[in-house]
């Protein structure tokens, strides 16, 4: 059996992290999981063109899924930090960098690393 390439390792890790956040938010329905798979397929080409970007794939897949969910269902993940005002989604930072985190732009705080929303109490459903 051949070892898994660093590219495939990065893609599998990104998939797992984003799926963990979707499960934590109780939105890991089959059609939503398909959005993850679409993003991973698109990012495979991207990282094949720029192998140095492999460490950025998790944040990019998270952003892709967040954008696709916004178009189809609503905001996700909802901010668990701000208790008042209009519900708003968390953002991924850095937009293109290693060690991506979900952050609340309004409060200016890191909420959780991508893949760790289950420990942060992020909102259950897009809205």
Brief account:
This protein has helices at 6-24, 30-49, 57-72, and strands at residues 91-93, 101-104, 109-113.
Topology:
Blueprint: H1 6-24, H2 30-49, H3 57-72, E1 91-93, E2 101-104, E3 109-113
Mind explaining what this structure looks like?
The protein has 127 residues and is mainly alpha-helical. It has one domain. The protein is 43% helix and 9% strand. It has three helices and three strands; from the N terminus they run H-H-H-E-E-E. The chain has helices at 6-24, 30-49, 57-72; strands at 91-93, 101-104, 109-113. The protein has a three-stranded antiparallel β-sheet, with helices on one face. A hairpin with a 7-residue loop joins strand 1 (91-93) and strand 2. Helix 1 (6-24) crosses helix 3 (57-72) and helix 2 (30-49) packs across helix 3. The chain is globular.
Order of H and E elements: HHHEEE
The helix count comes to: 3
Domains (count): 1
Query: Which structural category fits the helices and strands?
Result: mainly alpha
Largest sheet: 3 strands, antiparallel
Q: Give a count of the beta strands, DSSP E runs of length 2 or more.
A: 3
Strand content: 5-15%
The helix fraction, in percent, is 40-55%
- Rounded Rg: 14 Å
Return residue spans where pLDDT drops below 50 for at least 5 consecutive residues.
122-127
Strand order of the largest sheet: 1-2-3
Q: What is the arithmetic mean of pLDDT?
A: 90
Question: Judging from the principal axes of the Cα atoms, what is the shape?
Answer: globular
Terminal residue distance: 45 Å
């Amino acid at each position: 059996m051949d070892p898994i390439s660093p590219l495939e390792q990065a893609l599998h890790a990104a998939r797992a992290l984003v799926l963990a956040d979707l499960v934590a938010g109780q939105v890991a329905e089959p059609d939503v999981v398909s959005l993850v798979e679409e993003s991973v397929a698109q990012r495979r080409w991207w990282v094949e063109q720029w192998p140095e970007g492999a460490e950025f794939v998790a944040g990019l897949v998270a952003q892709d899924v967040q954008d696709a969910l916004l178009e189809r269902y609503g905001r996700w993940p909802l901010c668990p930090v701000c208790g008042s005002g209009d519900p708003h989604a968390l953002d991924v930072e850095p937009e293109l960098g290693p060690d991506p985190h979900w952050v609340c732009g309004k409060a200016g705080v890191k909420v959780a690393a991508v893949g760790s929303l289950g420990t942060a109490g992020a909102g259950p459903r897009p809205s």
